[in-house]
Design brief:
heterodimer, A: mainly alpha, two-stranded antiparallel ribbon, globular, B: mainly beta, 5-stranded mixed sheet, 6 helices, 39 strands, about 35% strand
Chain lengths: ~160, ~625
């Protein structure tokens, strides 16, 4: 991933700066994806946009599923449906803008002592996929995408990025 | 003798040290041999969770009623349970921020003292499966607690004052504390959590009086750090022979992030003077990344039962339950020490209701495998264990390594949660059976290539879960748990009772012929120890993942339990599981835990009404 080196390692960064950085990172990633993908993928350039056809999704939304499952599910539960202590993110995505979701992912949250969401600012695999995570959450929120691991729509596969 | 005096003597010479050891050991032993008390989380060193108290019986248990309740003020999952050491107080703990309370048993739980550590909340994100803690240990007037942030502390039980603290790990590399320590001789024995963060597991002994570190044995790496001697340490009853298997059974350097976190319960045999515990999953869940020269490798000593000398940590024997794990069958489940008769011969046994769905019986002197049979009928990842080699015979269809990276291997039973997780079982010497809350859940598992970054999850597999198929006649459709009675010698289920959700609470049996367990909806239930027939239930305010303990004070038998839903169960089951029969997008047929219970830590203390005792 070419944008890795631009990532700052300093912890004390203001969340606004982290947000700006993450948006840059996410959009750079989207452009990369755009270069590799056929024109049908246009729809998923915008964070939060998605295509669902017969339970299958566009590659960015699929990448969002993978990133969610690897990094978010441990607290927010399978399929973005929430856990005993962390909220359902499909519901949250209905109410929250991309900027709000991106700020939370990058900056973390402390709701009360002991109720904490960590900052993912230093994790490139999350930061570079915030837009894709948002697309996955929006697809779940729409009711068009069900539970479980979706497949990618035929003809839309792009190169896997571990 | 004052603690200061004892410490001074202990530093003079070996004889004095051994006297001090004997004294600390005797204190915990003496307490746990008194049936009125519940002085250690598992009831006794052997992990029986059995009480000789018989005021509450199968005949009168239906009259059991709550005496008082106490809110801990803490949300998230409450594991472990109350300790009673005979001083008229209950000692309880909470998940992060790890408060400790001394509650007056004679005054409806009035707070005598409370303690709240000031700890770095940045440890929370590295606690994979909720901020749980499995409870306090006690000996010689001191309480011991492993704080989430890796600080092991000793408190004065009388006043709640901090006596010492010791550093047991580093959250910036993914380490945390969730387990309950065990006091053996003059040592506090403590493991570590962090198997999903590529840590290197370790078990450590600290001095009871000072908190000074006395030995540490790693789960993987060179023999001199695991504390193995290949000439004397036994495996399947024979010396291991080869050296440094904790290094050579891994690809280059992978043992350094090889997991094997021992975060479950530790048991102890005072006669053999050995401690027993199991180690967790090997590093990443992607088996491909743990091969050597492209071949499956044992990844020793992950998912292994260790028998160690508590005095110096030396390993007496090892038994690896799952070499080259492909399913996250984290091998930490408790080792219950039971004396059994096999083929007319008395054996010192060690029984495990294991993550894998198999019930094991080993010889606890030598580590030989005696019995390995399925206690969860749906178990399909292995057909059986080869009793000569002690290795599972894996079903290729459910081998996530054979199926490959980025391939979704479907319908593996049990799930990574295990057919049983950390919820400790009970062993009744009256019936010779083990009573356990279990999980009836299967999974789809897809390994993927992952990179190690210190302090970040090092998982490398995605998985989805679904209720296990119901194979036994009359089983509850869509059920996700059961409470079972298991014959550890015959390797047979004697009876089982199905539950809607996984049974994630520790069990209790008593001389009153009653078995107790809790449900994720929040019920505490009493069943007939011989048939499983339900005799009594009470709905506590939140789901139960704690353990049910019993004790007697001023002639009255009490039952105490912490409610407070959470843990891995609270993450995986909150929204309900997928129905494998449904297509994508269909509404799940299986109910979510979220519809039944919400967060909140509550201690409930039960007793019979005065008129009936």
């Amino acid at each position: 991933m070419s944008n890795k080196q631009s990532r700052s390692k300093h912890i004390g960064i203001l969340s606004i700066a982290v947000l700006a950085l993450s948006i840059t990172t996410a959009s750079a990633d989207d452009q990369n994806a755009d270069n590799q993908a056929p024109s049908e993928q246009q729809a998923s350039q915008e964070p939060g946009s998605f295509i669902v056809k017969d339970g299958k999704v566009d590659p960015n939304t699929y990448q969002g599923y993978l990133t969610y499952t690897r990094h978010c599910q441990a607290c927010h539960g399978p399929d973005a449906m929430g856990s005993s202590f962390a909220p359902n993110l499909a519901t949250a995505a209905e109410r929250r803008s991309f900027e709000e979701i991106a700020t939370t992912i990058a900056g973390g949250l402390q709701i009360q002592p002991g109720r904490v969401m960590p900052s993912f600012a230093e994790d490139p695999s999350v930061i570079s996929n915030i837009g894709n995570i948002y697309s996955y959450l929006k697809a779940r929120a729409s009711g068009e995408l069900g539970r479980g691991r979706p497949k990618v729509i035929e003809g839309m596969q792009n190169e896997e990025e571990g | 003798m004052l603690p200061e005096t004892r410490f001074a003597i202990a530093t003079i010479g070996l004889l004095a040290i051994s006297m001090a050891q004997a004294q600390a050991n005797e204190n915990q032993l003496e307490l746990q041999q008194n049936p009125d008390l519940w002085a250690t989380q598992l009831g006794n060193y052997q992990g029986h969770r059995y009480s000789e108290l018989d005021q509450i019986t199968r005949e009168n248990v239906e009259q059991l009623q709550p005496e008082w309740q106490f809110s801990t003020g803490v949300l998230r999952g409450h594991e472990g349970g109350p300790l009673y050491v005979g001083d008229g107080r209950l000692y309880i703990h909470t998940p992060f921020p790890n408060k400790v309370f001394a509650l007056d048993l004679e005054d409806e739980g009035r707070i005598i003292w409370s303690y709240e550590p000031d700890q770095d909340f940045r440890v929370i994100p590295v606690m994979c499966c909720d901020t749980v803690n499995r409870g306090l240990a006690y000996a010689d007037g001191k309480l011991f607690l492993g704080q989430a942030d890796n600080t092991l502390i000793a408190l004065d039980a009388e006043s709640g004052e901090l006596l010492w603290d010791a550093n047991n790990g580093d959250h910036t590399i993914g380490e945390s504390n969730t387990m309950s320590p065990l006091v053996v001789h003059d040592k506090v024995i403590m493991g570590i959590s962090g198997g999903e963060f590529g840590i290197r597991g370790h078990m450590t002994a600290y001095n009871v009086e000072t908190g000074e570190r006395e030995w540490r044995g790693y789960s993987n790496g060179p023999d001199d750090e695991v504390l193995i001697d290949p000439e004397t340490t036994l495996m399947m009853g024979e010396p291991i022979g080869e050296s440094d298997l904790g290094v050579t059974t891994w690809p280059e350097g992978e043992w350094e992030r090889g997991g094997g976190a021992p975060w479950g319960w530790v048991t102890y045999d005072p006669e053999l003077d050995l401690i027993y515990y199991g180690t967790g999953n090997p590093g990443t869940w992607n088996p491909e990344q743990r091969t050597v020269d492209g071949e499956p490798a044992d990844n020793k000593w992950a998912i292994t039962v260790f028998a160690r000398d508590p005095n110096n940590g030396e390993v007496k024997w090892v038994y690896q339950k799952v070499p080259f794990d492909e399913w996250d069958y984290d091998g930490v489940n408790e080792n219950q020490l039971i004396d059994v008769e096999i083929d007319g011969e008395q054996r010192k046994g060690l029984a495990i209701i294991d993550r894998t769905g198999f019930g094991f019986l080993l010889d606890r002197e030598t580590g030989e495998l005696l019995v390995a049979e399925k206690y969860a009928a749906e178990t399909n990842w292995a057909s059986h264990y080869d009793m000569e080699t002690g290795r599972p015979v894996v079903n290729e269809e459910f081998s996530t390594y054979t199926q490959g990276v980025d391939v979704n291997t479907a319908d593996i039973c049990p799930t990574a949660m295990g057919a049983k997780n950390m919820q400790p079982s009970s062993y009744s010497p009256d019936t010779g059976l083990i009573y356990a809350g279990i999980n009836r859940i299967c999974m789809n598992y897809e390994p993927f290539e992952t990179n190690y970054v210190a302090g970040q999850p090092y998982v490398g597999a995605t998985l989805t879960m679904m209720p296990a198929p119901v194979e036994e006649e009359g089983g509850m459709e869509g059920r996700m748990g059961s409470f079972i009675a298991w014959d550890p010698v015959k390797g047979e289920v004697v009876w089982e009772v199905d539950e809607r959700f996984a049974v994630w609470s520790g069990a209790l049996t008593t001389a009153g012929n009653v078995a107790f367990y809790g449900t994720l909806e929040g019920h505490i239930k009493a069943v007939d120890i011989e048939t499983g027939e339900e005799l009594w239930r009470f709905k506590t305010p939140s789901g139960i993942i704690g353990n049910i303990n019993t004790f007697r004070h001023n002639g009255k038998q009490y039952i105490g339990v912490l409610s407070g839903v959470g843990g891995w169960a609270g993450i995986g089951l909150a929204a309900g599981l997928e129905n494998p029969e449904d297509g994508l997008g269909a509404v799940s047929a299986f109910s979510g835990l979220d519809e039944y219970t919400k967060l909140g830590g509550i201690l409930t203390v039960f007793a019979l009404p005065d008129s009936s005792t």
